[in-house]
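Each letter names a residue; structure tokens follow underneath. Both lines appear below:
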Amino acid sequence: MQTPRGGNTPLAIGLLVLAAVFAVAAIFYLSTRTSFLASSEARHYKHAVLALILCVLCLIGANFARRPQA
């Protein structure tokens, strides 16, 4: 579905929701000692950094998805 200005609003909203999920995952991995989706019980900084990178990429994608076509 495109808005009258040419953006793709459902895609932008989906990417924003996904960015929020990745942000929560990054906070989770930075703040707790866990073995969830990892091999050992520890703080997983690499997982947190990856989640933050994916969060930023989703935000950038949402920004492009909401922009009108030139």
Q: What stands out?
A: Helices lie at 9-31, 45-66. Residues 9-31 form the longest helix (23 residues).
